[in-house]
Design a protein that fits this description.
Strand content of chain A: over 45%
Number of helices of chain B: 0
Radius of gyration of chain B: 14 Å
Structural class of chain A: mainly beta
Oligomer: heterodimer
Low-confidence stretches of chain A: none
Largest interface: A-B, 33 and 27 residues
Mean pLDDT of chain A: 92
Distance between the termini of chain A: 37 Å
Helix content of chain A: under 10%
Strand content of chain B: over 45%
Structural class of chain B: mainly beta
Helix content of chain B: under 10%
Mean pLDDT of chain B: 92
């Protein structure tokens, strides 16, 4: 099973709202990722968690706050977003081999389509 | 740093014709190579990957790609396309690392494949 699930599928929020995006995988992967994708563009990396620790933050504004409660779950908390934050938010996971220092292909979820009004 | 160039932003092809989507990369270190497909309003699906070994890689849906180290290319091919292959295709690379920690994928800008009846 190579499934990554994301909820909700669609989200409309105002600029003063607080909401969260959720991502889950049960493949035993220890690396999880958040990407933002605008229309007709490739995904842009936002955050990476490796073994539940934040490994990479690509200078994302603080209105986006990631959280990794356990090895299967990844959340993205949203607060005071701007209309330009409207995009498809993708979660991904990959196997991360600490012993051999290797990381493998990423598996993506279906995404959450976010609209900020 | 790595970079990926997808030479064609759009490729129109007639059904049952062969197709090649071109991908060139730049890197000073060894890389892993991937092709992902994105159907409308969906996440990214892994088509195929090159990690090591044989330079001809077969993937899902009848696609294959050949890794050419001297030309730093990883072109995607299919001998006979179907209407259902209409999608956005992304080439991506990541570094082969000797240490643990999650990988960063570098994407090309994407190629829109349109299959005409």
């Amino acid at each position: 099973d190579t499934e990554v699930t994301q909820t909700p599928k669609h989200l409309v929020m105002g600029m003063t709202n607080k909401k969260s995006l959720k991502c889950e995988q049960h493949m035993g992967h220890r690396a999880m990722y958040w990407y933002k994708q605008k229309a007709k563009k490739p995904p842009e990396l936002m955050f990476v968690y490796s073994y539940e620790k934040l490994s990479i933050n690509e200078s994302v504004p603080s209105r986006f706050s990631p959280e990794c409660p356990n090895s299967s779950l990844l959340n993205l908390h949203l607060h005071a977003l701007q209309p330009e934050d409207s995009a498809l938010y993708l979660c991904a996971s990959s196997q991360d081999d600490l012993v051999r220092g290797l990381s493998y292909e990423q598996y993506f979820g279906p995404g959450t389509r976010l609209t900020v009004t | 740093a790595q970079s990926v160039t997808q030479l064609d932003s759009q490729v129109p092809v007639f059904e049952e014709a062969p197709v090649e989507l071109r991908c060139n990369y730049s890197s000073s270190v060894s890389v892993y190579l991937f092709w992902y497909v994105q159907y409308p309003n969906q996440g990214l699906q892994l088509l195929l990957k090159y990690l090591s070994g044989s330079t001809l890689v077969k993937g899902i849906n009848g696609f294959e790609a050949e890794f050419n180290k001297s030309q730093t290319s990883f072109h995607l091919r299919k001998p006979s396309v179907h209407i259902s292959d209409t999608a956005e295709y992304f080439c991506a690379v990541s570094k082969v690392r000797g240490w643990a920690g999650a990988q960063k994928l570098v994407f090309g800008q994407g190629t829109r494949l349109t299959i005409n009846p």
